[in-house]
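Aim 2 progress. For Sigma-54-dependent Fis family transcriptional regulator, the working sequence is reproduced below.
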Amino acid sequence: MPFHAQQHRAPVGADALLQQARRALQTGALPAEELLPPALAYVSRSWQRSVQAGLDAFARSTPAPHHSRFELARATERQHELLTHARPVMDYLMGQTREHRGMVILADADGLLLHALGDLHFLQRAERVALAPGASWHEAHRGTNAIGTALAEAAPVMVHGAEHFLECNGFLSCAAAPVRAPDGQVLGVLDFSGERRPASPHLLGMVSTAAHMIENRLFQARHGHQLRLHLHPLPEGLGTAAEGVLAISEQGLIAGANAAALQLLGLQAAGLRQLHLQHLFQTDLEQLLRSAHAAQPLVLQRAAPGQPTRLHARAWLARPARRQSTAATPTQPGTSTQPSARPSALPAPLQALDTGDAHWRGLLEQAAKVCNHPIALLLQGESGTGKEVLARAIHQASGRAAQPLVAVNCAALPENLIEAELFGYAPGAFTGARREGAPGLIRQAHGGTLLLDEIGDMPLALQARLLRVLQERQVTPLGSGQSVAVDFALICASHRDLKAEVAAGRLRADLYWRINGLSLHLPPLRQRSDWHALAQRLLQQHAREQGRCACPTLSDELERALRHYPWPGNLRQLDSVLRTAAVLAADSPHIDWQHLPGDLRQELQRPPAPHAPSGPQPNAPPASAPPTAEPPGQPEQPQPHAAGTMPLAQHTLLTLQRAVADAGGNISQAARNLGISRNTLYRHLKRQR
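Predicted structure tokens for this construct:
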């Protein structure tokens, strides 16, 4: 899709002329199209819409709506799929744009800001104009701005300085691109906003590429199990963000298409599913399957007249060892190398998490047995071990999958608001309450699943109220004397040793036994035997996100070193490291030492400190001390502190302090490098000291 022009835009010195143009437009002296150059036609159209919305360009503030925490929580839950696939890409984009000292924002299709991250100084300034989660940046509320205008124009746009309709937003320079679902529907907008300075010619392209990465993740999530056909008029276009991608069902029907494929083939999203492969190309399903198994490129001829008539293509199967078509040769027993090839009774959402580790497989089987029974599940394990991922898979595997899963982070909610957020409140229950009241997160989970994450951080005073709700299955909103019946499956999660919390008096014993119908202890990454399968799955995912036809592989020596690394951030850290390495190895089929983030590369060249678990592992076997991993050609380093000669807490503190020092004292950067949250890092530093 073409970008709106960002060249020939007015320089910063022309702000006064732009202000005069806005004033002339608002007074009706001249139409917008006569005020701005053709390259800014989209700004002209947006200014006109802003005037029609009744906005005053020179007002000090606007009555734009700002959603409450409760409304924002509901919106983020509705957009869970989009957020899940956007967050890693937002982290990546933030790293690519760090020199611009701004923020990366995700908004929904109505312009509601869902999630943001960025430079602390700029975040504070942005909050003054309500550029923060919970605010609406629809054009009707904020006038011309990259988020709202990208939605209105359904195209990537850049809005610089005084091109914003509201003068109070003139300090911003923003680039935004729509994010579309596999069916072509606009789901939201990805935006980068920063201080106004000379516009970077690459910024809009970077944001648009990141938006395509999110679309690729969404496409893979919905159609990753199906045969996919990657298309481009030029062979060198395959594996780039400009390639079209079709998903094809077992019957040869088109199951999905990305925006590039729709444009390339001249198709509309509506009615796409009625099309058969042979309506589009002079080929059949068997030829594509053979090409996928052989990893051979194709040249396809269009079945009907059209331009281009010939397209270069690659067929891709997520599991090449298994044939999709009933007419294809069946797979011989025992020939598949997939970890899940053995017969399995696991529901599909749980089966998708099985990568071959026997202990992990046992946890999945236990979860499958209880997911449709009224048994409270307690997931325990270190930060980053996949507790929320497992909880969502359990919900999807249950009979409640069609109803919402409401996730509540008990550690993130302010203590003075958590009661109202959980239990809801009646109209006028307290100062600042919404006139119509609020149902609360527990009632939102009615019919579905309630996930109480970090349950060990819930204030003690609130635990008694929660216990009563769990016992009686009724909730009484604040300020109301009337109880409301609720029905939900309960999953709780914590990185803490909850038995120790009970012993310390920080967690009620009766609440602990109520939430502990079945306790599943998720193993840390260093104790899992399926490291290779996990790494390969993540690399394949990142290759698809980056539009690569071939998945890069780890060199043997690097893989051995990474296997022995203690991974304090567990799967979250592994995912972050491999994403970065895959980007740095974009021009290479192999990932080697030079592609690792610098801090990890240095860490692997040092004597490893024993890892202090950040969560309980009562049933886990002790991890053996890993050997020191050295990159090729490096002499063996002396080990001044061999395992066992220094207290474990001191080793842990040294590791954390070293990470903070490597990040120049930046706690947020150190936490990102470790693959853990900033709160987790603060907590460990506080405990060890």
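The chain has a mean pLDDT of 79. This observation will guide construct design in the next reporting period.
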